[in-house]
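Why do we care about 3D structure at all? Because function follows from shape, and shape follows, mostly, from sequence. That is the central idea of this module. The next example makes it concrete: a single protein chain, its amino acid sequence, and then its structure expressed as tokens.
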Amino acid sequence: MSGQEPLSLPSVDGLALDTRLHRASGDARGVVVLVHGITADLDEGGMYIRLAQRLVGADYSVLRFSFRGHGESGGTQRGVTVAGRCWTSRQP
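And the structure:
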């Protein structure tokens, strides 16, 4: 999809999370973060790519990422915990 930028977003413990940023063409109305399910990745079977396209068309920027151990993100699925899925500014 044109308009998506690959990024490497670090987790709080330093793992690189595979990330895509879709920028609105003008001033964004806001930013939508798409968070996938436990058995998927940042594409969510293609659904999140299509959703990102629609949201960008409605002047929203969109951030998609894969949790640790999913898609191209670092780490293992075994390391995924409910607490680890919460973003915090505190270090573990």
